[in-house]
């Protein structure tokens, strides 16, 4: 059975979904999957499902939800029985734990590829960085748990995953810009910088890709758009690195056409923190 949380929640076996139908049961399964192979206390489960207003029957209701999840899993060919489902979804001491194989959860595969990509970064292997991070990003099918309305614990984890995904994209783009793939990145960077208008790093990457694609005017327009938004929203100027990149584009600095652009291209000098929004509906 394969579980997926990097998009709508899924519990699939042989091409067929075996999710419980009730929203609260899906919600509980999502919480357990984001802590796969780790015990999640009944207190955390209750807080996630009902926040500060649990019903008097919270514990027996949780037990009922767990039973319904097990029944859904038991219908799948790889689980087959309620007895096997109890080994897949384990009751502990005031806790529950879902057991998944290393490659059976997309989040586990994503984290493995993230670590492999970081090793490639330390080794200076941009091709491996691009290949590994692209494989990790391909696991996403939209926002994490897009069809689950999160409570306090899931909300924190989902927001953290969104930040990790965006950071991976930026690092992937950096490697691919060094590989000379600026033409291929224009559409992706344009869309992402528009979706995250306060992200200076994405805009700077887009500016560099535009400049290297002989679109200097559009690169300058991207800078002025960023400066206007930062001023209107936060009352600040773009960070020094982005301003230096802007000046280099204005003067046609030859370093912009090479890998030797240290100090002119975006780094992590400043990160503007903004809430990660979930799609409505």
UniProtKB/TrEMBL annotation:
Protein name: OmpR/PhoB-type domain-containing protein
InterPro entries per the UniProt record, alphabetical: AfsR-DnrI-RedD_regulator (IPR051677), BTAD (IPR005158), OmpR/PhoB-type_DNA-bd (IPR001867), Sig_transdc_resp-reg_C-effctor (IPR016032), TPR-like_helical_dom_sf (IPR011990), WH-like_DNA-bd_sf (IPR036388)
Organism from which the protein derives: Streptomyces spinoverrucosus
GO biological process terms held by the UniProt record: phosphorelay signal transduction system; regulation of DNA-templated transcription
Domain of life: Bacteria
Occurrences of domain OmpR/PhoB-type (ranges): 1-100
Any one GO molecular-function label of the UniProt entry: DNA binding
Family: Belongs to the AfsR/DnrI/RedD regulatory family.
Keywords, sorted A to Z: DNA-binding, Transcription, Transcription regulation, Two-component regulatory system
One Pfam family matching this protein: BTAD
DNA-binding annotation, residue ranges on this chain: 1-100
